[in-house]
Design a protein that fits this description.
The chain has 199 residues and is an all-alpha fold. The protein has a domain at 90-198. It has helices spanning 6-34, 40-52, 54-115, 121-135, 137-140, 145-167, 174-198. Helix 1 (6-34) crosses helix 2.
């Protein structure tokens, strides 16, 4: 039973209902308020309510802590993932480098021992260089991977063609093969530039 007049009791009950509804509405608006994407009127309503309501203020502080913890967790996962990716890339580069060095040692020894000089060894060497251009360059460079891979692969291929031409029958076909290769690569570069600009 209420001590006050019946009208005062009704007003008190309405105020309690209004506060309860306001808390529910405010809790729905808090994420938008926190991200600063709500309207100015809604922002003002939230701020006025937070100044008066201890429960919603505590809920807001808890949400800030959770958001901060989530952001820290995401940044930590990104750093750890990026570090793991770099370690994996460096390990792969080292493994490929060792494999390439090992692959040219036997041909070097055999060619030198059997022929007393180096000739077909350069076929192997330039072939390994071509392999490295295709596999290692994308791992080493961070920007324009396709462009640098194409350029390094072309140079390695030209060296391979030159070695074959120089140490074989003596017919000078390198300029024809090399010119065709350069023309093809330049055409590919123009196509890449065209699609990059049009895209």
């Amino acid at each position: 039973m209420c001590d006050l007049s019946q009208g005062a009791c009704e007003n008190s009950g309405k105020e309690q209902i209004r506060m309860k509804i306001s808390c529910d509405v405010i809790k729905d608006l808090l994420p938008l308020y926190y991200e600063d994407v709500c309207y100015e009127a809604s922002k003002k309503l939230v701020e006025e309510h937070l100044n008066e309501c201890v429960t919603c203020s505590a809920f807001m502080n808890e949400m800030k802590e959770n958001k901060l913890d989530e952001k820290i967790k995401m940044e930590r996962e990104y750093v750890i993932g990026n570090h793991a990716k770099n370690v994996k890339r460096q390990s792969l580069i080292q493994a490929l480098s060792i494999a390439m060095v090992i692959s040219i040692i036997p041909p070097f020894v055999v060619n030198l021992a059997t022929a007393g000089t180096l000739n077909w060894f350069f076929f192997v060497l330039t072939g390994v260089m071509l392999f490295g251009s295709i596999t290692m360059v994308p791992l080493i460079v961070s920007k324009n991977k396709a462009l640098w891979t194409l350029i390094s692969s072309t140079l390695s291929l030209l060296l391979l063609l030159f070695a074959i031409d120089f140490f074989t029958s003596g017919r000078s076909w390198f300029w024809i093969a090399g010119g065709s290769t350069v023309f093809t690569v330049v055409s590919i570069l123009f196509i890449m530039i065209f699609f990059k600009k049009s895209g």
